[in-house]
């Protein structure tokens, strides 16, 4: 490497040497702007406008789907003629889920497509300027005006109107859902104190409604059952609400494996057949996993474990109390029936459980 006598390298170009702008490398500037098809062809611009409007309309349709699923399916009894049991619930969930997705996706894609095809895409550079209060105000006003002009919202009323309609409708599903969380609505603790179970009500298979004989259950078997009078409840939504409180799991153990019952519960089982609420006392998930050798019931949501041989007490997990046990016996024909309703509220543990039962049927 050749060097000058003062030790400076001739291979190094220093800032300010050989460059007219004072930098070692000339500023290459912005690349040339490449116009899009919509910039030079009004037909293409109109086509993009219609595409954006169509996406906003998709958002509107999605919002309407949500309302149909949320209100119509749940509250119109004539849907029972077309859907049986949980099929109606699946249709409702599908409409709510797909509707919400389309509402959000349509408006989001519409705005993105609008920005990519119709709004100006020129790149600009600006030198930083000293702050001047009045000048800044005027410049800010000009920026806002330029942004409005660049969106072409004045020139294209179709875009403006469909976007406003979609934006106004899209938040409504969330408003409706949050409204239903209102604690003053008709879904308080009193509704959880009693279910459809009562003295003499038969235990039947779900969803067939077939009564169950005690002789049909072998040791180690378990079965999901509902009250026979559930079919008498009119209205799809009311029937689902009552079913959610009344779902029961029955199983048959060797009578020798059942521990000594709490006083007052001596006749709650029949020849080793016991029944309990399926609703976990933690957050209300369905308890449906039964291990016959350990007699354990497992909630799949948070792994709360209950011992069926010891009146369904909690042996592991976050649940705070045992699963409510349903007193059962058999009728004259050998079919399993309930002796009474649950003697405590079903469902998760909540602070209102400390309140007294106004009817005096059982302690809270």
UniProtKB/TrEMBL annotation:
GO: which molecular function terms? Answer: 2 iron, 2 sulfur cluster binding; metal ion binding; monooxygenase activity; oxidoreductase activity, acting on paired donors, with incorporation or reduction of molecular oxygen
UniProt entry keywords in alphabetical sequence: 2Fe-2S, Cell membrane, Disulfide bond, Electron transport, Iron, Iron-sulfur, Membrane, Metal-binding, Oxidoreductase, Respiratory chain, Transmembrane, Transmembrane helix, Transport
Query: InterPro entries annotated for this entry?
Result: QcrA_N (IPR045603), Rieske_2Fe-2S (IPR017941), Rieske_2Fe-2S_sf (IPR036922), Rieske_Fe-S_prot (IPR014349)
Domain of life (superkingdom): Bacteria
Q: Where in the cell is it found?
A: Cell membrane
Q: Is Transmembrane a UniProt keyword of this protein?
A: yes
State the function annotated in the UniProt record.
Iron-sulfur subunit of the cytochrome bc1 complex, an essential component of the respiratory electron transport chain required for ATP synthesis. The bc1 complex catalyzes the oxidation of menaquinol and the reduction of cytochrome c in the respiratory chain. The bc1 complex operates through a Q-cycle mechanism that couples electron transfer to generation of the proton gradient that drives ATP synthesis.
Write the protein's name. Cytochrome bc1 complex Rieske iron-sulfur subunit
């Amino acid at each position: 490497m050749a060097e000058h006598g003062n030790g400076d390298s001739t291979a190094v170009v220093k800032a300010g040497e050989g460059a007219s702008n004072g930098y070692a490398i000339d500023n290459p500037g912005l690349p040339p702007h490449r116009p899009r098809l919509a910039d030079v062809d009004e037909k293409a611009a109109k086509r993009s406008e219609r595409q954006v409007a169509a996406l906003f309309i998709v958002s509107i349709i999605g919002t309407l789907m949500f309302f149909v699923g949320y209100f119509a399916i749940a509250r119109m009894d004539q849907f029972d003629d077309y859907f049986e049991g949980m099929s109606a619930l699946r249709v409702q969930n599908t409409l709510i889920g797909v509707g919400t997705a389309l509402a959000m996706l349509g408006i989001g894609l519409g705005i993105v497509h609008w920005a990519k095809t119709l709004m100006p895409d020129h790149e600009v550079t600006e030198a930083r300027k000293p702050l001047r209060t009045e000048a800044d105000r005027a410049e800010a006003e000009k920026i806002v005006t330029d942004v409005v002009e660049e969106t072409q919202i004045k020139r294209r009323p179709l875009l403006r109107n469909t976007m406003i309609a979609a934006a106004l409708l899209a938040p409504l599903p969330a408003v409706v859902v949050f409204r239903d969380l209102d604690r003053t609505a008709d879904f308080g603790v009193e509704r959880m104190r009693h279910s459809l179970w009562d003295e003499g009500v038969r235990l039947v298979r779900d969803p067939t409604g077939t009564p169950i004989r005690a002789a049909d259950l072998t040791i180690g078997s378990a079965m999901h059952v509902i009250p026979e009078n559930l079919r008498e409840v009119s209205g799809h939504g009311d029937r689902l609400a009552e079913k959610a409180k009344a779902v029961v799991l029955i199983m048959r153990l060797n009578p020798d494996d059942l521990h000594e019952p709490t006083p007052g519960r001596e006749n709650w089982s029949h020849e080793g057949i016991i029944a309990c609420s399926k609703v976990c006392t933690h957050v209300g998930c369905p308890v449906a996993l039964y291990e016959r050798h350990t007699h354990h019931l497992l909630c799949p949501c948070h792994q709360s474990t209950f011992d069926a041989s010891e009146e369904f007490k909690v042996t592991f997990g976050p649940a705070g109390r045992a699963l409510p046990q349903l007193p059962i016996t058999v009728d004259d024909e050998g079919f399993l029936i309930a002796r009474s309703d649950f003697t405590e509220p079903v469902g998760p543990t909540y602070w209102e459980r400390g309140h007294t039962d106004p009817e005096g049927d059982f302690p809270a």
